[in-house]
Fold:
Amino acid sequence: MTETNRIAGPGRGPHGVPAAIALSPILAARYRARDLERIQAAAPGSRLVMVSFEGLADGPVDDVEVLLRGFLSADAFDRLLARTPRLAWVHSATAGVERVLTPASRQRSLVITNARGVFSQPIAEYVLMMILAVSRRLPQLLELQRERTWQPLEGAELADVTVGVVGLGSIGRAVASLATAFGCRVIATRRRSEIGSASGTEVESDAQAAPAEALGLDRILGPDGLPELLAESDFVVLATPLTPATENLIDAPALEAMKPGAWLINVARGRLVDEHALVRALREGQIGGAILDTFRDEPLPATSPFYGLDNVIVTPHTSWSSGRVLDRSVELFCANLRRYAVGEPLTNVVDPAAGY
Structure:
């Protein structure tokens, strides 16, 4: 049985729950009283240990079996690993797990789960908001308002817009669903390894393996179809995980392959993009513009050239944010806690080899 299929639990606490659960801050927020109550109800008898952003715990961690990892640097995470010999399962409160799959965690063969599906809806709505804003020329209209100038502008109907979705996981599928509902033509790339891969639930795997027609898409391409997607898309949406294979996926040649006037939307990870090449392409008018919600260095320094480009919309890594995501995050973790206690397979298990 592979590590990604390994059945976790039962724990060493009462009735198979973990003896202790470590909780680091998630989604830039403190745990609310009701969050802690829900976690305690899912694992009655477990001791809860609070962990700071720096990895400092408010109690002993030698008996911690489960970690809910939120904002914790890779270094702090590794330091915590060294002090938790009984740790068996780490749940990432983010969909991306590049800071969890450290050499130390790989060596321990920990079970890793992630927050796949928690952020899909708000991110998809963010993407559609931006596609609508650019297509209907909202930035220019706001500029005309500031100038007190009356100048009607022609916009584009979404039936005439092609959206290219790079990565057809839960976020990519949510983007595609909304875009097709608005009348856009949608094409996507999907890595072959996603089809039929261990992704936590049978439903997830079926959705990933579904043909283009079932998802309402024009077509689905493999990784080698990226140049085709770039050449046809008015908006290129990056929704793929960051792995060694996808780092700098959008480099100078990829930007040259994009349709003239097209916009790049990055709601995934900053390191998917060669930012120096993107700045050049934007300054030279090689592409229409970029909507960037994530960057290599965050917070984005005030000296970044992205702030000064008229054809760039910068947002502070906020596409995921909504009033519902914290509840969904806690509920997903609690559902897995209940599975852990009775030895059932966990959902959203990450394949370390694939990196997602």
Summary: The domain at 3-118+323-342 is CATH 3.40.50.720 (Rossmann fold). The longest strand covers residues 64-69. The longest helix spans residues 325-342. The chain is about 30% helix and 15% strand.
